[in-house]
Amino acid sequence: MGVLTKKNIAIAAGYSAVLVLGMLLGPKFSKEDSNTRNGSFLPFGLGDRSGKIEKIIRTIEENYVDSIKIDTIQDNAIEDIVSQLDPHTSYLPPVEAKLLFEDLEGNFNGIGIEYFILSDTILVTSVTAGGPASKSGLLRGDQILKIDNQTAAGKEIGSTKIIEKIRGKNGTTVQLAIKRGNQLKTLDIVRDKIVISSIDVSYMLNKETGYIKISRFGDQTDEDFIRTIQKLQNEGLKSLLLDLRQNGGGYLNSATRLADQFLGNKKLIVYTEGVHEPRTDYYATAEGEFQNGKLIVLIDENSASASEIVAGAIQDLDRGTIIGRRSFGKGLVQEQFNFGDGSALNLTVARYYTPSGRSIQKSYKSGNESYNQELASRIKNGDKASEDQDNRAPLATLKTYTTQSGKVVYGGGGITPDIYVSVDTSGYTPYYYELSAKGVLNNFVFKYLALNKNPYGSVSDLISNFKLADTDFSQLDEMAKEQKIEPNERQAALSKTLIETDVKALMARYYFGDEGFYRTLNASDQVIARSMEVLK
Predict the structure, then answer these.
(1) Which of 215, 305, 343, 356 is catalytic?
(2) CATH pick for 107-195 out of 1.20.970.10, 3.60.10.10, 2.30.42.10, 3.90.190.20
(3) Which residue of 152, 422, 475, 533 has the lowest C-beta tally within 10 Å?
(4) From CA 38, how far away is CA 337, in angstroms rounded?
């Protein structure tokens, strides 16, 4: 993995961030020799002119009384140094650096499956059509018991270990021992290149309005978008809902290339600047695929960095309407410095500014812990519950800017939407949160419902006809007790609709893939409903 240049600086908000609101189902089911910048594995001595830190590490290694894992001590020391900087500078161990790179590049060498860990066993939830696993006969619903003769079940199994075992060099073989019903089978699967689209789902909401949800800003995002928008245009697209909710960011250039699809020639999209990084301006070209149609961009508190660059440009240049909730507020740019062992340092090197000159970075003066708790505090203390109260932080504390049309926008603390749509929090009871956090809803779906034959002919059929029976709710209560969740009739009643929607969406994903999942959620999504009203 080469050093990331100015052309693909990473500006992801941080992939370890915990979702605060919305579906607590997880973002998706799990999917399956380096150059160095400074020529040294140990990134010490760069700012420490005497090399003191490096000398301490080596002295400990050579003289300490007991046997120690020097790599662990070294990693901890690096992380402690990094923690003294801003919240988004981070050190990535080799495995994490590799996975992040593959995620943003949009491809890896693997077998093409999605899975869920059910009762300490890997359950295959999706098999990519035409992929290596599909060609070898692996089916949705199969349970993976062993990978290359090593047990792949038990309390210790986790997504990182699974991915490490299943992915590998292109053309190599991985052997899976599986259980299908009461049968045991062994499959030899040849790994191949697996391409991951940046677009989770796209479809027409009505005859003229299209919907595209982008999950990340990777290397191929603009190409994915162009193919998708052209397909929707062939279906009659005139207006677009671009959904950037839960999108934590990605590459800077991917964000500018996507914004370019909506903006006129030579429009300033964003500029970056830092103490060691001279100002760099990014402009639109004349080649955008959707420069004239009606545009709405959906954001929420987990829309960050690259998502905020796109939303900020659209808002500042009066190109479209921003609807949803205030975005995360990350206005820092990281560059990745790679080391010989595969680890990497994502170092903040610049700030970015929207066309009107505003930085949307929220304050981190109170320390990383306070910064990391800001989203939870925002929801708890009133990223307001109604449109007339709005969620624009205390507006008096924010610096104001003006768009080309004279509209007032705000800097610091994220992108404030033009139209605010609050979350109906009535169903988000402690009981629901525990069901979600402890995986009870996922386990319920895959243990009792989804493994049966699909009784629905289409996503629309499932959306219209799926209902949980009283016996299903009783079964959920029993599973909750197994996870030491105390039953609460009042809270369960308040959360009933939300629980049913979550279960329905998980069923739709299992039977119909990502499109089924998002169509099901979108059918009762108030942000989308409000957007459709705006387009009338």
Answers:
(1) 305
(2) 2.30.42.10
(3) 533
(4) 8
